[in-house]
Amino acid sequence: MPLFGNSFSPKKTPPRKWVSLSNLHFMDRSTREVELGLEYGTPSMNLAGQSLKFENGQWVSESGSFTGDRRELQRLRKRNQQLEEENNLLRLKVDILLDMLSETTAESHLMEKELEELKQHSRRRK
Question: pLDDT band at 60, cuts 50/70/90?
Fold first, then answer.
């Protein structure tokens, strides 16, 4: 014999009224940024004693200049220039070699064609 009756039927809960417990919708944007810390600023980091910040898609030194050894910087620039010149020279050489290959291939095809014509001509004579 059940204590609470034959069937279990709980009462339906009434729908909740939409009441926000947060007062964020009463604040203006600047107050919300201050309250919630939504003002992040620019990302920054310290790497090997050099302070860098991220601006316009690039990492930039906060001091505005390279603080390393000037001789090292000059050496790196000179090496970069040498490598760029070497790269340009190698590109030029590749272009020349491709032109030479194209010319040789064209001459080879012409010679093969002439040889085939000579063979056909000699077969007709026999």
Answer: confident
* CA atoms within 13 A of residue 42's CA, in its CB half-sphere: 14
- Half-sphere exposure in the Cβ direction for 31 (13 Å, CA): 6
The Cα angle at residue 22 between residues 16 and 25, in degrees rounded to 5: 105
Q: How far apart are CA 73 and CA 82, in angstroms?
A: 14
Q: How far is CA 115 from CA 13, 105, 106, 118, in A?
A: 99, 15, 14, 5
Average pLDDT over residues 80-94: 97
CA angle, 84 then 87 then 90, to 5°? 155
For the chain, where are the E strands, in sequence order? 44-47, 50-55, 58-61
Q: Which residues pair with 51 in a beta bridge?
A: 46
Residue 30, helix vs strand vs coil: helix
Position 43 scores a pLDDT of: 79
